[in-house]
Amino acid sequence: MKVELPETPSEELGYEHPDYFDLEKIERELRRVGEVCHQCRRCLPLCPSFPTLFDLVDATEEEIEGVTMDGFDRVGELCYHCKLCFNHCPYHPPHEWDLDFPALMRRHQLARARRDGIPLARKLTTQTDLIGKLGSMTAPLMNFANKNRASRVLMEKTIGIHRDWVQPSYQWETVQRWFAKRGGAQAVGTNGKAVLFTTCSVNYSDPIAGRSAILVLEHSDVRVELAYDRCCGMPYTDTGDLAAARRNAEQNVALLLPHVEAGAKVLVPGPSCSLMLKEEVPRLLGTDQAHRVAEATQDLMEFLYDLARAKKLQRDFERPLGRVAYHAPCHLRAQNIGFRSRDLLKLAADEVVLIDACSGVDGTWGMQARFHEASMGVAEKMLERVDQSEPDHVATDCPLSALRIEEGLGRPAVHPVVLLRHAYGISAE
């Protein structure tokens, strides 16, 4: 198979490159990459984008040249940026063919957003901090509304969130309020210093995960400070609002850099957010400061695993966890750090069943009414495997995957660090 090389190598194609938003060049790259994908088809089972692309190719005698831009738009809409196809592809960089399908889908999406604008309903779903603060201040009312069928139907008709999507609950006592009430950092820090970037999901909706992270780290004498002011910016990149993503990136780098300069690791309890800080923020800003923060950033469980390898993690577990079904999120697998949560849970569980199938949510894609059916189709394999494992506990690092498990199976899934805290016998109060 003869393959043309890209007009601009992917390593040179940053957001500031003059070709990045050029829709004519994007169309040529879609056809170049689409031809290779059509001949290979290795990624067919990964997500709806690939079967849609191949059906479009197979429907015309001209094959990839017969696919219209409307067809490519549909392929792009069905990509929810899980990034699994990058590692699955045998031709990704540094291969000379230089195929980066998820980066191309992002480029196509951002160019369309620049051309067409972002719908108001989509913009509203990116306001995670505003929603979180309002939800925290009015928790009983917000939680009632989120569980009320009539309000969910209204939400579907106004902002496009499917009525069956399980909305997160909100808590008055956020991680920030709890941390301030207890008087801040408690440990001496003989095993290191860390700053916890709580994420909007953990801070406002799952503060038990944030508390558990701090308590588990302190149990092994890691000194933990808290640093959270605003969302990592991933929802903005998902909708194409690069200006807002940059604003958040700049503020977060300014917030975290003093901690990094003081020798602390930046720990993130959400895989999409850690991926954002590690990869996307340096790309958005291109500054030395952004790269330094990225280099100091680790997934929370990645850091705890490193402690365990260095024999600095306490292993005085008091409560057995039994059988745990652990779902490994896509954005954690995309970081190529291994299954650290699974490995840590094995220290306290009788058995850990690894579920490495996609939940089909990935940002706001899977909660949108127009994609909900396709999203549930993606999640079917994951839900079936969780259910068949008959676990005592279900764990996932991803808060959106936890909501999908609750939607599909009617049972809660918690962050792995919550189970570690439980196994230690440490109260979260």
Tell me what you see in this structure:
With 429 residues, the protein is α/β, with parallel strands linked by helices. Helix content is 53%, strand content 7%. The chain has helices spanning 23-40, 49-58, 69-77, 84-88, 101-116, 120-125, 128-137, 139-147, 149-159, 175-181, 200-205, 207-219, 234-239, 242-261, 271-285, 288-296, 300-309, 330-333, 340-345, 372-388, 399-409, 416-424; strands spanning 193-196, 223-226, 265-268, 297-299, 323-327, 351-355, 393-396. The strands form 2 sheets. A 4-stranded parallel beta sheet has the order 2-1-3-4. α7 crosses α8 (139-147), α14 (242-261) crosses α15 (271-285) and α20 (372-388) crosses α21. The longest helix has 20 residues, at 242-261. The chain is globular. The model has no long low-confidence stretch (mean pLDDT 93).
User: How many helices?
Assistant: 22
What is the arithmetic mean of pLDDT? 93
The CATH architecture of one domain can be given as 3-Layer(aba) Sandwich
CATH hierarchy, class of one domain? Alpha Beta
Shape label: globular
Strand order of the largest sheet: 2-1-3-4
Q: What is the strand tally?
A: 7
CATH fold title of one domain: Rossmann fold
Largest sheet data:
4 strands, parallel
**First-residue to last-residue Cα separation:** 62 Å
Structural class computed from helices and strand pairing: alpha/beta
**Alpha-carbon Rg, integer:** 22 Å
**Low-confidence spans:** none
How would you classify the quaternary structure?
Answer: single chain
Order of helices and strands: HHHHHHHHHHEHHEHHEHHEHEHHEHEHH
Strand content: 5-15%
Into which percent range does the helicity of residues fall?
40-55%
